[in-house]
Amino acid sequence: MTKIFNISSDATETDKIKEAAGIILKNGTVAFPTETVYGLGANGLNEEAVKKVFTAKGRPSDNPLILHIADRQMLNDLVKEIPVNAILLIDKYWPGPLTLVFKKSKLIPDIITAGLDTVAIRMPSNNVALRLIQESKVPIAAPSANISGRPSTTKAQHVIDDLNGKVDGIIVSDDSTIGVESTVLDVSESIPILLRPGGITIEQLESVIGQVLVDKGIMHETEIVQAKSPGMKYKHYAPKAPLKIIKGDTPLVIKKINEISKEYQSQGKKVGVLATEDTKQSYYKDNIVISMGERSRPETVMLRLFDCLREFDKYNVDIILAEGFSEKGLELTISNRLNKAAGFDITEIE
């Protein structure tokens, strides 16, 4: 049976946090809020506890996890060294939505890193997450708190829908404030490599440390033998219905989506359209049209993206047609999540 903990964003319910931390220390599993998405946590130093996370999610064992910490002393114990680039980024962005990949210490079980010699670590800024880690006194291994492959969870109800009865505890608190998983940067190499875009952009990273390379799998379908970060190897974030992305100049995209939707409707299919505030009135009224947010404010799209994908499930649509985004700034993050959700089913309009 899953225990539900209602905890406010200021984390003043000390007894409830201690009880949830007790579950972690007894090698159980607890879903908890962060500023990015909700996470499903377990004792990151105990192999048996971490196995329960993989089981609850149905997550492949070769997909590494991120360790969540509450202070820099925890970091010192988990890694072999902290490069200068990492120190600069930690000073700027921790706590916050940035995960850094280091050479790991012997303290970390292989199950966390899928056998790699590197480990992904971040310090969340969410008060409830930090208090849970502090009370647990161990790093918490936590992927997103959803069934593997499904859209990530940004609201407590999403977590309950996916994992109630499969985990030991769920902390119900405020919605995520960013809406997508953290940026992941590998600082174990001489030139850092962006492995997953998130709420901190490559432009922001480069303003602090200079050159950053970009893993080609971020935007293109590639064969990955061993993923160094979550979100790299498998189809992720997918709604129940197939998702197709249409990219190009906005007027041409609108025209193409209307053409495709008319064709699907002629086959008796229910069509969903993932639009923006700017375009939502441009599509046929008999489609299920949901706005992600304002294209001119991509942070609003990031915040709503996974919620929108889950919303289409409620309408039982047969197909979802989504407007594409660019590969600059936060739009790179949005494009990455949409591409993965669509299995790279992308039509470019010229």
Automatic annotation (TrEMBL):
UniProt EC number: 2.7.7.87
Coiled-coil annotated residue ranges, if any: none
Residues binding ATP: 59, 63, 118, 144, 152, 196, 237
UniProt main location, coarse: cytoplasm
Binding, L-threonine: 36, 68, 122, 142, 182
Family under the similarity heading: Belongs to the SUA5 family.
Top-rank EC class of the record's enzyme: transferase
Protein name, as recorded: Threonylcarbamoyl-AMP synthase
Gene3D superfamilies noted in UniProt: DHBP synthase, Threonylcarbamoyl-AMP synthase, C-terminal domain
One of the record's GO molecular function terms: ATP binding
Domain YrdC-like span(s) in chain numbering: 14-200
Keywords: ATP-binding, Cytoplasm, Nucleotide-binding, Nucleotidyltransferase, Transferase, tRNA processing
Domain of life: Bacteria
